[in-house]
Each structure stands twice: as structure tokens, then as C-alpha cells.
Amino acid sequence: MEEISHTCQMGNGIPPLPDDQGCTMMMQRYCYECGGPLSLSYPEGDERPRETCRRCGWINYVNPKVQVAMVATHQDRILWMQRAEEPRKGYWSLPGGFMEVDESPREAAVREAKEETGIELDPESTELYVVGNIRSINEVHLLFRAECNSHFTNPGPEAQDAQWFTEENAPWQKLAYGIAEEGLRRFYRDMRTNDFGIYYAEIISDELYLTNYHRSLDTISSKYNL
């Protein structure tokens, strides 16, 4: 097992991508199993440096976190929330957050929507809309959609406000993350035609790329009787 003799402190605290040159940040210092010191090394047969215990050989695999969000609709409107906390306090986004360890992605999206906007949704009524990732911050993102039977909202502590917007009156100039605009406008378009895709999203160099897998997933589901 080849040990790496140095670490490089990265400004954002995120492990580098595979094509970064020799710069890896330690995320943890001690072993969960025996408390021994960790060092960066290449386990046998592995092409990535891993935090490995010098005493017992335990390996700490650093994996992405999972973020979920909800596109709740009512008639021709989407529910937006105005953020009450940094980052981007006062700007608008969809309700969302990180999954907890004891819930499904659907349950997490429904919980976040309720905590931040007060709406009640049935997890079984939700549909997957986007799955994607942001490598630069080591996150996987899942976006669900669901129809809400009521326009009632009750913003929680993480939201200053929650409003139902059509595409025409949505606060595009105050969107918390401008890169999400293409995806939101795509949803408004799908909502008008009632023909929703299932998209794979990739953010590369601050550009959003969306691929519609709706047709191929229909084929796979039919073939394997899912």
C-alpha cells in the first residue's frame, strides 16, 4: 500500500476530482474502528488515495452527500420559497435540503417542503423529475415533483416567505442560484404540455446540462416489467 507523504489544503474543503494533480485533503484524522491515526494511501487495486488506518487497515471512503428538493405545483403555479438563512438570504429557490439517514429520498423531499413552506404532500404521490450531481461540492441532487391540492402555505424558520408563481411573475432576478433557471423554465414548459421528462443534470464549469431520459426509461421499465 503506497502512502502519500503530503496533503494539500483545498480552499473549499472538497476532495479533488480524479484528474487533479497530487492534491488531496484529509477529511478525517482518526479511525472509527480503533482510534488509530489515518494517512492517505493507495489501497491495493485502488486508483484513488484513501484515508487508511495505519493500525488496523480500516479505510474511510468519502462519498457524496444527497440533496433533495421539491417542485410543488398548484394549477399553473410552482411553489417558491424565499430563503431566511445564508447563503443567499432573501433570494428565492425551491424547498429542499439534505436527506436524513432514516428516510427515503421521497420522504426527505416531502419533509423539506413541509418544514420550509408548510405544505402537506404524500410521498407516494411524488414523481422523480431530475437526478444529477455537482462534483465541485461533492453532492448528488434529486428533484421530485408533486401536485398540491391546496394553495395554503405556512413558511417555517428557514423561509421568509413562500409564494405560488407562474412563469411570468416568478422572481427570476432574485433567483438564489441562477444556474437553476434553465431547469425551472423547463419544468414550466413541461407543466404547460403535461408531458414531464425525467432528466439527468450535470453542472460543468458553471453550465447546466440536462438530458431527458424519459423515453429510454419507458423502454427499460417495459423490458424488465418494473
TrEMBL record:
Pfam families: NUDIX, Zn_ribbon_Nudix. InterPro entries: Nudix_hydrolase, NUDIX_hydrolase-like_dom_sf, NUDIX_hydrolase_CS, NUDIX_hydrolase_dom, Nudix_N. The keyword Magnesium applies. Residues 61-188 form the Nudix hydrolase domain. Its cofactor is Mg(2+). Gene3D superfamilies: 2.20.70.10, Nucleoside Triphosphate Pyrophosphohydrolase (3.90.79.10). Keywords: Hydrolase, Magnesium. GO terms for molecular function: hydrolase activity. Belongs to the Nudix hydrolase family. This is NUDIX hydrolase. It comes from Halioglobus maricola.
